[in-house]
Specification:
mainly alpha; Cyclin A, domain 1; Methane Monooxygenase Hydroxylase, Chain G, domain 1; 9 helices
């Protein structure tokens, strides 16, 4: 069994309870996105792909004890013969790429940039729409609030709704990825989200 299969099994176990769009399927898609980007960048592919797989195993939305999760990842990677240097870089990446660290937060190296781009791509497009709805439902959030809709029948006001997420975050992603490959993918996915919302507004009573 390859290291990646072992890592995938670890992530499956850690994320098996997630019902809000951050589980193993998300991790695997980020892994695939990272592969696509890494082909065109000078990077350490093993670090990039490993970090892509384990990046949400420390998400504070999912785990109460983040320090424990960090220790668990460190112990796991040590057990499959990752060097201390590689582990430290993977931990740096997964603790610095979340949106909460800042939309334009500076990252130390291209490995981290690739993983962040790969993760952000999975938040937009058709997959992004599904994940937004999944997460909203998981936390009891309505897709839209009547206050969202302006007099012109389009988005007018931010509320605690999934619709607001599109305008407050998802439509920003196209301009907040940094590798050439990610920019190309993001442009297409952003266009699809706009088409989706155009139809959504048409169907509103």
């Amino acid at each position: 069994m390859s290291d990646y299969e072992i890592i995938k099994n670890f992530v499956r176990k850690e994320m098996k309870f997630d019902k809000g769009g951050h589980g193993y399927n998300h991790a695997f898609r980020v892994f695939v996105n990272a592969q696509k980007i890494a082909k065109h960048e000078k990077c350490n592919e093993k670090i990039v792909l490993t970090a892509a797989l384990v990046h949400d195993c420390i998400d504070k939305k999912l785990f109460q004890d983040v320090d424990r999760q960090i220790s668990k990842i460190k112990e796991f990677l040590t057990s499959i013969n990752f060097s201390a240097e590689s582990i430290n870089e993977i931990l740096y990446i997964i603790t610095h790429i979340s949106w909460s660290h800042g939309i334009d937060a500076n990252l130390d190296n291209i490995n981290a940039v690739i993983v962040r781009d790969a993760d952000r791509l999975d938040g937009i497009g058709a997959i992004g729409i599904v994940r937004a709805v999944e997460y909203g439902g998981n936390v009891g959030r309505e897709f839209y609030d009547p206050e969202n809709i302006g007099s012109d029948g389009k988005f007018g006001k931010t509320t605690n709704s999934t619709l607001s997420l599109f305008y407050d975050r998802l439509f920003l992603v196209k301009d907040k990825v940094y590798t050439k490959t990610a920019k190309k993918i993001a442009k297409k996915r952003d266009k699809f989200m706009k088409i989706f919302l155009e139809e959504f507004y048409k169907e509103l009573p």
